């Protein structure tokens, strides 16, 4: 169940490619935590996933709204950015847990929701390297393991 893979990302195109592979691999209920410092490409990855699912309009960063919902021909995606959440209790009272019962959830800064969010199927770590960036994907459930093996079969990047 616990499996992982790291790829180097040399450009935004590489991030977009991984986002496309992720989108093509989603079943529809995965809970995905996305870690990484400011500017490592978390929102870019989410945008790539959402647009690869066929969403045509502008994809806002949920930095201020905390959560954005997408219904793409009946495929539901919740995109969250918890950067501004100082205390997970804020989420408890906002009713966000109920809003995450349907669809795929992509959650930036998940540590700020600890104790409130359900366990992830995969954790994605974005990082700066010397001359590029990297993405490290770790599965933590059976559906996460399926997701990662599908991504692996689609990705066309160097490790
Ligand atoms: N693999 C990459 N290589 C180069 N630039 C990237 C890459 N991924 C994202 N970027 C750029 O980095 C900037 C910050 O990305 P963003 O997705 O907003 O980061 P975060 O949500 O982690 O703060 C954007 O200008 C984006 O175009
Ligand atoms: Mg962001």
State the shape.
globular
The biggest beta sheet reads: 7 strands, mixed
Domain count: the total is: 1
Q: Please provide the ordered H/E string of secondary-structure elements.
A: EHEHEEHHEEEH
Assigned CATH architecture: 3-Layer(aba) Sandwich
Oligomeric state: single chain
The average pLDDT value, as a whole number, equals 96
How large, in whole angstroms, is the Cα Rg?
15 Å
Count of individual helical segments: 5
The ligands bound in this entry are: adenosine-5'-diphosphate, magnesium ion
Query: How does the helix and strand content classify structurally?
Result: alpha/beta
Query: Class in CATH?
Result: Alpha Beta
Order of the strands making up the biggest sheet: 1-7-6-2-5-4-3
Low-confidence stretches: none
Helix content: 25-40%
CATH topology: Rossmann fold
The portion of residues forming beta strands comes to: 25-35%
